Amino acid sequence: MKTRQRMEHLRQYMDERDIHLSIIWNPDNQYYVTDFRAISYSRAILTVIDQQEVQLIIPKLEESHATERAEVDRIHVYYEQYEHRHLTLSYVDFLSNILSKLPKSANIGVEMALLPADVFQYLQQSGFTLTDIGNRLVQMRSIKDDYEIGCLKVAGALSDIAIKESLSNVRIGLSELEFDSYGDRALLEVASQQYADELIGYEDWTCSGIERSEMPHLYSSTRKFMDGDVVVHSRQVWYNNYRAENERTFLIGNVTEQQKDLLRLAIEAQQVGMEMIRPGIAAKEVDIATFNVFKRAGYADFVQHRVGHGLGLSEHEEPYLRFDNELILEKGMVYTIEPGLYVPGVGGFRHSDTVILTERGSMSITEHPRAFDDMHFVFS
């Protein structure tokens, strides 16, 4: 990872805005600039950056991990064990000590949209001026470098393997959880065989039946597939923390003509978005174009969300493909394209694929078949 270049970029930004010191709270942003990310953040972890050094404040249980992994200059450890009760017990003590070396009116960089309210209040009451660095971190993370794109491609390929295996086992009477498990096992086996000593994880869920498919986000349940079902299956796979998203809607058995038509319509809208997205256009144009596919067909009232979101270190990340986003898209950005319809009494319909913006347009890194004929399972 190019953590050193990222840190220098951030320091230059700080220098241009007379920021004395920056505090990074968000775990994904911390990983982006230090190559360190813990699993649990119920305990505070802070990255503190000035022009001389990068400091990390962590709980004792993360000390070994941080010492091995974090690209920082200094690590401060706070304790929560009874036998160490005479030592520093709070991250606030370390933060206060670091801040005490600054001028009283120092300018502190923070992620304004992400900073906890109590930390914001503490900094304000201490007399510091606060400047938002969150938008700059969004801008930095939105353009992926070659390493990041390589990780995303692996994640996309692994998601395809999982989707293929689950869909190869569709049958009436199979529960949503069982359906997921086929893909999970295939993913884990391939990952273990082909990618030694790498960090790989996944998240998946399946919503089957009319009522469940109408709700865009639900965890998988023990409900069993039935004849006439509409099913939305979603997967995210991450490779070295970089995520690709892959979703397919499929039909089981004797569905209605309207359900068939709506799946075809969702596939058409997605194709419009995937062919349109490219560097040089505004983010809003992709959302509006796919929405108009639904509008022309008379289903404008059944669109519930934007056409896509950024992907990388976070499950969803900025910038978003939404009707009010004037951002001009650039080479190296990564997005989902996932226009969806949710019609009460009929079902939900949405494919999602992950695309990388290249000089020539969009390159999908999730490639499992999307066509209607591949998504309708009929049993004799």
Protein architecture, described:
- The chain has 380 residues and is α/β, with parallel strands linked by helices.
- It folds into 2 domains: 3-140, Creatinase/prolidase N-terminal domain (Creatine Amidinohydrolase, Chain A, domain 1, 3-Layer(aba) Sandwich); 143-377, Creatinase/methionine aminopeptidase superfamily (Creatine Amidinohydrolase, Alpha-Beta Complex).
- The chain has 11 helices and 17 strands.
- The protein has helices spanning 3-16, 27-34, 63-69, 91-99, 117-125, 134-142, 146-167, 176-194, 209-213, 257-276, 283-296, and strands spanning 21-24, 46-49, 54-59, 74-78, 107-110, 129-132, 200-208, 230-239, 242-252, 308-310, 317-321, 334-337, 340-343, 347-350, 353-358, 361-364, 376-377.
- The strands form 5 sheets. The chain has a 6-stranded mixed sheet with strand order 4-3-2-1-5-6, with helices on both faces. Strands 7-8-9-17 form a 4-stranded mixed sheet, with helices on both faces. Strands 12-15-16 form a 3-stranded antiparallel sheet.
- Strand 2 (46-49) and strand 3 (54-59) form a beta hairpin.
- Helix 7 packs across helix 8.
- The protein is globular, with a radius of gyration of 23 Å.
